[in-house]
């Protein structure tokens, strides 16, 4: 590779180039009827973080095309500090899968041991000024973890495409 992946004009990037984290303290205005933070608030924060990672990788505007999967593992409480970390796991011609890890820790706990509360996989499409899809840099994983993430993203993509094809097939055939 002759191009530097840290060069914003490069056509090749490593996943670490896109990595970004956001943190926010959860307030009572985000609580659901059970007194925990509403899942939609967590999804919004995850989408914002994923969007920042997609825009870093693509070098410009990118829009959410799909939420492929979101798994909630633990409740988030009012007062928790929530940190989301995202990076591009896979990149195609104009689309990217971005993985997001969501962790929380009580604001009173300085132990530095956050709890993994959710994970999500978003699909973004890079767009130009007219809203049309545009090409994104190639993603080149460097570590075994990044290679694993890319492989798993390819599996999710193939499942998404197969599911879409099966639905379309069912819509064109009569029962």
Structure described in brief:
The chain is α+β, with helices and mostly antiparallel strands and 175 residues long. It has helices at residues 15-18, 39-58, 144-172, and strands spanning 12-13, 20-25, 62-72, 80-91, 95-106, 115-126, 138-139. The chain contains 3 helices and 7 strands; from the N terminus they run βαβαβββββα.
Short descriptors:
two-stranded parallel ribbon, alpha+beta, 5-stranded antiparallel beta sheet
Summarize the structure in words.
The protein has helices at 15-18, 39-58, 144-172; strands at residues 12-13, 20-25, 62-72, 80-91, 95-106, 115-126, 138-139. It is an alpha+beta fold. The chain has a single domain (12-172), classed as Roll (Thiol Ester Dehydrase, Chain A), CATH 3.10.129. It has a 5-stranded antiparallel beta sheet with strand order 2-4-5-6-3. Strands 1-7 form a two-stranded parallel ribbon. The longest helix is centred in the C-terminal third of the chain and has 29 residues, at 144-172. The protein is globular and about 50 Å long. The mean pLDDT is 92.
Number of strands: 7
Class derived from helix and strand content: alpha+beta
Biggest sheet, open or closed, and with what strands and sense?
Answer: 5 strands, antiparallel
Average pLDDT over all residues:
92
Order of helices and strands: EHEHEEEEEH
CATH topology: Thiol Ester Dehydrase, Chain A
Distance between the termini: 53 Å
- What is the CATH top level name? Alpha Beta
């Amino acid at each position: 590779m002759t191009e530097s992946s840290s060069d914003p004009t490069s056509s090749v990037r490593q996943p670490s180039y896109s990595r970004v984290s956001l943190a926010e303290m959860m307030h009572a205005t985000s609580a659901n009827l059970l007194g925990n933070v509403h899942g939609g608030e967590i999804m919004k924060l995850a989408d914002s973080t994923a969007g920042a990672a997609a825009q870093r990788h693509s070098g410009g505007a990118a829009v959410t095309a799909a939420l492929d999967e979101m798994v909630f593992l633990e409740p988030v409480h009012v007062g928790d500090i929530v940190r989301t970390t995202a990076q591009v796991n896979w990149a195609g011609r104009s689309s990217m899968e971005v993985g997001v890890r969501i962790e929380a820790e009580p604001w009173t706990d300085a132990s530095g041991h956050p709890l993994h509360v959710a994970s999500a996989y978003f699909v973004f499409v890079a767009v130009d000024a007219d809203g049309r899809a545009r090409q994104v840099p190639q993603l080149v994983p460097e570590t075994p973890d990044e290679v694993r993430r890319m492989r798993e993203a390819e599996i999710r993509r193939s499942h998404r495409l197969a599911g879409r094809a099966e639905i379309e097939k069912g819509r064109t055939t009569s029962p």
